[in-house]
Design goal:
The protein has about 325 residues and is α/β, with parallel strands linked by helices. It has one domain: 3-Layer(aba) Sandwich (Rossmann fold), CATH 3.40.50. It has 14 helices and eight strands. The strands form two sheets. Strands 5-6-4-7-8 form a five-stranded parallel sheet, sandwiched between helices. β1 and β2 form a beta hairpin. α8 crosses α10, α8 crosses α14 and α10 packs across α14. The longest helix has about 30 residues. It is globular. It starts with 5 loop residues before the first strand and ends in a 15-residue tail after the last helix.
């Protein structure tokens, strides 16, 4: 419990126990997500009862903050930039929080779920050094539980990161069939969570194209982010992916300031996360992102134009802002 290398990786509600696996800081920085796919299977995890974890936990807690996102918006890169030894350690999409989502969907009682979530956050919030904060970037399947997590941690602050609608749809289109299927799976989960309040009947989704379904998922998250901002405006700031990728260092410095972390622009500018693909780890070729988007525009632009127009009408009827307020950086004039 005193060694942050022992990552709280899974939660087993049947035995009320946490599974731990040892993952060094360097290993965490080398993978995009803290999942078995990227870390490798752990066949012999350390398994501890939740009550024992609670009893052994330190009373002193590191500051804990969140980076919530709506996918395909460079959130992994920002999480990596925020990882600064001695200042903050970041956790990218820990599976433990996905377990919290799954358990809630299976009908976990609210009180039991809140107590387990409180302990899960305490375990994830163990830092490598006494002065460090912890920044958690959950998977976006966790977004329906974002407000609950921030309620459990009233001192936490959050950043909401999103891609503009058209940029998001271009990313989905160019990533191909698996991504379109993932968007349907995401919407299926959000519907189960009661997270989609856009006036559609369940059968309507069967009549929508893949990109319409992707747009519905984006709108649902944008709607929830706007509500989260209204709920805790003093604790939350926003940023979009285009602003982030245009000036990584300035956005990362503003993000650290918002999270009350000490930012060193020189260290940020020299961070290895800049200039590499956050998913594959390979170096970015100059203009690579722009070429990818231009190719997607050439192939799918007409379809995306139609879907964006449709989604804007749906969003307007539901009162959903396409651009979130309270940006980390003021918009350029």
């Amino acid at each position: 419990m005193s060694d942050a290398e022992w990552l709280a990786h899974r939660y087993d509600p049947g035995h009320d126990a946490f599974h731990f696996r040892r993952v060094s800081r360097d290993r965490r920085a080398a993978v995009p997500f803290l999942t078995d796919l990227h870390l490798g299977e752990e066949n012999a995890p350390a398994i501890l009862r939740r009550s024992d974890c609670r009893a052994a936990a330190s009373d002193a807690r590191a500051p804990l903050h969140f980076l919530f996102h709506s996918a395909y918006c460079a959130s992994t890169m920002l999480a990596q930039l925020l990882d600064q030894p001695g200042v903050a350690t970041s956790l990218s999409e820990p599976v433990l929080l996905n377990d919290m989502v799954g358990w809630r969907r299976r009908g976990a009682a609210l009180g039991d779920h809140a107590r387990a979530m409180d302990d899960a956050l305490a375990l994830l919030g163990r830092s490598f050094a006494p002065a460090e904060a912890v920044v958690i970037k959950p998977s976006n399947v966790f977004n329906p539980l974002a407000r609950g997590a921030m309620t459990l941690r009233p001192d936490s602050r959050a950043i909401l990161l999103y891609a503009p609608l058209r940029t998001f749809l271009l990313s989905v289109a160019r990533k191909g069939l698996w991504c379109r299927l993932w968007c349907r799976e995401l919407l299926e989960g959000y519907l189960a969570d009661g997270f989609v309040q856009l006036g559609f009947e369940p059968r309507d989704y069967f009549r929508q194209s893949d990109l319409q379904v992707a747009a519905i998922g984006w709108l649902a998250q944008q709607q929830a982010f706007a509500a989260l901002l209204a709920w805790a405006p003093d604790r939350i700031a926003t940023i979009d992916s285009e602003t982030l990728t245009r000036d990584l260092v300035a956005v990362a410095a503003a993000a650290m300031e918002h999270l009350r972390l000490t930012a060193d622009p020189k260290k940020l500018a020299a961070h290895p996360a800049i200039g590499r693909n956050s998913k594959s780890g390979s170096d970015f070729a100059p203009g690579e992102r722009q070429r990818d988007m231009a190719a997607a525009e050439a192939s799918y632009g007409e379809e995306i134009e139609q879907v964006v127009g449709w989604a804007e009408v749906v969003g307007e009827q539901a009162g959903i802002p396409l651009t979130l307020s309270q940006p980390l950086l003021p918009p350029k004039r």
